[in-house]
Design brief:
Blueprint: E1 2-3, E2 12-18, H1 22-30, E3 38-43, E4 50-54, E5 57-61, H2 63-66, E6 69-74
Antiparallel strand pairs: 1-6, 2-3, 2-6, 3-4, 4-5
């Protein structure tokens, strides 16, 4: 298990858990990010939010949020 921040650009991952409070989890659910969902890291840099593809849509999450999203990398 890794945090989303560790996944390289272009790779797929499946969300295993969300390590945060109810407000944090609610915000991610609104973006379509929840346990079991597959996501693709579209773009990452050291200073900008991480761009993800979730259910066919592009969403952005900050690096702090990404570090609390636990995933398993998919091939």
């Amino acid at each position: 298990m890794k945090s989303l921040i560790e996944i390289k650009t272009g790779n797929l991952a499946q969300v295993l858990s969300l390590a945060g409070g109810s407000g944090f989890i609610s915000k991610l659910y609104k973006l379509g990010i929840k346990e079991g969902v597959k996501i693709k890291v579209k773009k990452k840099s050291k200073i900008c939010p991480i761009l993800l593809e979730v259910n066919g849509s592009t969403v952005a999450v900050g690096r702090g949020m990404a570090s609390k999203i636990m995933v398993e990398e998919s091939k």
